[in-house]
Amino acid sequence: MKRNLDQLYRQVIIEHYRKPRNSGELTNETHQIEMNNPTCGDQIFLHLKVVDSLIEEAKFTGSGCSISIASASMMTETIKGHTIEQALLISDDFSAMMQGQPHAHIDEENGELEALAGVAQFPARIKCATLAWKAMEKALATTETNN
User: What is this structure's pTM?
Assistant: First the structure.
């Protein structure tokens, strides 16, 4: 059973890597940030449109390994339609999951994120998985917007 679950999770990651959701740029973003992982070369440019504390749109461009791109794809899918506070709670839980700790805010609604739980077994890959999430946290922490 565990082997079947691992295979399913690999398929989810590969699907998000090959066909990333929300790939591209926004012309009306309120927040943007570029971040990279110098240890492996992963790079993300994140665009967010936030209105009244609600993340209405999230897109990204960049390059990187399958885990980095899949995580960015899943992250943008997950945070759209959530408030900043909710997105940051999910991000905290994602970080906890990457450390092998309990994660209460990752549920059926954003369950695809569980596909990345196995990354916790490979410490060198955790930064790949968390790059987009750290970018989102940093972008939302800035008070400056492009509007």
Answer: 0.89
